[in-house]
Design brief:
By secondary structure, the chain is α+β, with helices and mostly antiparallel strands. The protein contains seven helices and eight strands. Strand 1 and strand 2 form a beta hairpin.
Length: about 190
C-alpha cells in the first residue's frame, strides 16, 4: 500500500452503502446530528475526547475536518441511517500504516441507535473496504477496558482478541488499560 494511494483515495472519500446505512464524508450540515451524540458522557466514556460543549464547537470541528479531507489525511466517514437520513455516528480508520500494511478501525454511534446491529454493519463495511480497496494485510481495533459493547462488535466480526496492554494510555486524568483485537486478510477470506 502506498501513501499516495491512500491520500488520493481519501481526498475524495467514496460513499459506501450497506443494507441500512450510507457512509459518506462528514459535512458542516451534520453538526446538529453529531452534537446530539457527541455531547453525551455515555458516548465519550471510553473515548479519548471529551463531550462537545456546544453545537458551535461541533460545527467548527466539522469545518476543520473538511480541510483534512482535502489533504487526504482523514479517514472517517459519517454514518447515515438511510431510513431517517440522520447522521448517527462515525466509522473509519484512526490510523493507516503504509509501511506495515495495516489499518486501525475506530467508530462511535449515537446511543439512540445502540442495540440494532448498526455498529457491526458499519464496521464490517469498513473491514471489506480496507481489504479490497486499501489492500491492507492486517486490521486492528482497540477498546478501553470495560467497554464490553465495543469488544462484542469486534468478536461478532470474527476479530481475534489479542490481549490487554496495562495502563497503555493516559486519558481523562488516569491511566487506561487497552484491549486489542485484530484480523488479517487470510482469516477474512475464510468467512
Amino acid at each position: 500500500m502506498k501513501k499516495e494511494t491512500v491520500y488520493k483515495l481519501f481526498s475524495n472519500i467514496p460513499t459506501l452503502k450497506t443494507e441500512r446505512l450510507s457512509l459518506r464524508a462528514m459535512h458542516p450540515i451534520d453538526a446538529e446530528d453529531m452534537y446530539d451524540y457527541a455531547c453525551r458522557r455515555e458516548v465519550t466514556e471510553f473515548l479519548l475526547w471529551e463531550p462537545h460543549p456546544s453545537v458551535a464547537y461541533t460545527k467548527q470541528y466539522l469545518g476543520y475536518i473538511q480541510s483534512r479531507y482535502a489533504l487526504g489525511d482523514f479517514y472517517d466517514w459519517a454514518v447515515i441511517e438511510r431510513e431517517s437520513r440522520r447522521m448517527i455516528g462515525t466509522c473509519g480508520f484512526t490510523r493507516i500504516d503504509t509501511v506495515n500494511n495495516m489499518a486501525e478501525i475506530g467508530y462511535v454511534l449515537n446511543p439512540d441507535f445502540w442495540g440494532r446491529g448498526y455498529a457491526t454493519e458499519m464496521v464490517q463495511k469498513i473491514i471489506e473496504f480496507a481489504f479490497s480497496e486499501l489492500g491492507v494485510h492486517r486490521i486492528e481495533a482497540r477498546f478501553m477496558e470495560g467497554n464490553r459493547a465495543s469488544l462484542r462488535v469486534m468478536e461478532k466480526l470474527g476479530m481475534t482478541f489479542e490481549g490487554y496492554h496495562k495502563d497503555a494510555i493516559f486519558a481523562k486524568g488516569k491511566y487506561r488499560t487497552v484491549g486489542y483485537c485484530a484480523t488479517v486478510r487470510e482469516e477474512n477470506k475464510q468467512k
